[in-house]
Amino acid sequence: MPIQISPSVLASDFANLQSEIEMLNDSEADFIHVDIMDGVFVPNISFGIPVTEAINKHAKKPLDVHLMIVNPDFYLESFKKAGANIISVHIEACNHLHRTLQAIKDLGCKAGVAINPHTSVNLLEDVIKDLDLVCVMSVNPGFGGQKFIENTFNKVRVLKDLIEKKGSHALIEIDGGVNQNNAPLLIQAGADILVAGNFVFSAENPIETIRQLKNL
Q1: How many angstroms separate the CA atoms of 156 and 135, rounded?
Q2: Which of 65, 68, 72, 122 sits at 20 to 30 Å (Cα–Cα) from 80?
Q3: Is 17 helix (H, G, I), strand (E, B) or coil?
């Protein structure tokens, strides 16, 4: 399957959000990645349900919503109503992960789990067959523009092996510090989806940058 691209609007120009979303609509992007941060689970606050609704109003691509928040179960239905097609929760934030994943699926969304750089992918062994997506954080979550963590390559290989061993259909998404240098190596290791924020939105021609990532 060709690599899929999910540009993160966290790096977009919020003052011109509609035009940024329309640019992504015109691009070869597969998803629009929406980072939700609460200032508790991660040391930053981004945006919430009203901005997600505003994005969805103009988006023609599926919304890939990444909840970097505590108590995500309280907000699953609200983000579904706001337009989420994929909802990813952090394993570190969920006391009853299986229950949370079932709640996401019951809403009609695809269910993802995000894992921080320090978290072993082996902790997903008992739920990997229930997942549509694993979002591997290749930076510490909370801020855009961070340096890519090199151990991610090995982590992706281990995760790919787990997915194949368990007969799971989960896709591997990489979030953080993705660029033209590490993207080919991530694909080689087994990545299916690349989240790109600053690399896309700070580019002179974001549409061309997305096209180049798609064609690696």
Answers
A1: 10
A2: 122
A3: helix
Instruction: Pick out the chain residues at pLDDT < 70.
Output: 143-145
* pLDDT for res 142: 74
Whether 26 has a binding-site annotation, put simply, is: no
Q: From CA 189, how far away is CA 145, in angstroms rounded?
A: 22
Query: pTM score, two decimals?
Result: 0.96
144 is in an annotated binding site: yes
Complete DSSP assignment for 166-190: HT--PEEEEESS--TTTHHHHHHHT
Helix, strand, or coil (residue 35) = strand
Model pLDDT, residue 144: 66
Residue 133 and residue 124 in contact, taking contact as beta carbons nearer than 8 Å: no
| Catalytic residue set | 35, 175
Q: What is the pLDDT of residue 147?
A: 85
Query: 61 phi and psi, to 5 degrees?
Result: -110, 155
**In the chain, what are the domain boundaries?**
4-214
Contact, 78 vs 84, CB < 8 A?
no
Q: What is the fold of 4-214?
A: TIM Barrel (3.20.20)
Minimal CA–CA distance to 189: which of 121, 123, 141?
121
Does an H or E element contain 6, and which? strand 4-7
What are the φ/ψ torsions at residue 104 (nearest 5 degrees)?
-65, -45
Residue 167 annotated as binding site: no
Residue-wise pLDDT tens digits, 26-59: 999 999 999 999 999 999 999 999 999 999 999 9
